[in-house]
Amino acid sequence: AELAEQLISYGVDCEQLSGDIAQNKRIRILDRFKSGECKIVVATDVAARGIHVDGISHVVNYDLPEQAEDYVHRIGRTGRAGKKGKAISFVCEFGAYYLPAIEEYAGIKAVTVQPEEEALVLPERVKPLRHA
């Protein structure tokens, strides 16, 4: 909920799915996403289970799951039906602990990128996006 609220406060059009959201609202959110009206959905693991949407090009993990199987379940939302997809994961020093098990289980080698220091600014120093 916090991530979606923060994105919205910066002017990003997104929806959030969590176990707390009523089923009828979840259906409306997924319909907006499937139609392309909404391009970003922030979902918890509980809410993401059972979501089957074609054409998802990217899955972004705000944090890594503790279980490698959960990671594969998350990224399985992208690149379906023979299409390519990308999984991007933000990993701090605590989450890095889970990375070797995920790489082994998924049969992948993660490409790591250290962000430039100026990219690591505090949110209160970033101005919200303005849409014209």
CATH topology of the largest domain: Rossmann fold
> CATH H level of the largest domain: which superfamily?
P-loop containing nucleotide triphosphate hydrolases
Mean pLDDT: 83
Structural class: alpha/beta
The strand order across the widest sheet is 1-2
Rg calc: 16 Å
Helix content: 25-40%
| Strand segment count | 4
Shape: globular
> What is the second-level CATH architecture of the largest domain?
3-Layer(aba) Sandwich
Low-confidence stretches: none
CATH class of the largest domain, anyone? Alpha Beta
Query: What string gives the helices and strands in order?
Result: HEHEHEHEH
What count of structural domains?
2
Distance between the termini: 26 Å
What share of residues are in beta strands?
Answer: 5-15%
Largest sheet: 2 strands, parallel
Q: Please work out how many helical segments DSSP would assign.
A: 5
Q: How would you describe this protein?
A:
The chain has 132 residues and is an alpha/beta fold. The chain folds into two domains: 1-52, Rossmann fold; 54-122, Rossmann fold, CATH 3.40.50. It contains five helices and four strands. The strands form two sheets. It has a two-stranded parallel sheet with strand order 1-2. It has a two-stranded parallel sheet with strand order 3-4. α2 (23-35) links the parallel β1 (14-17) and β2 (40-43). α4 crosses α5. The radius of gyration is 16 Å and the shape is globular.
List the helices and strands and how they pair.
Blueprint: H1 2-9, E1 14-17, H2 23-35, E2 40-43, H3 45-48, E3 58-61, H4 68-75, E4 86-89, H5 99-106
Parallel strand pairs: 1-2, 3-4
Helix pairs in contact: 4-5
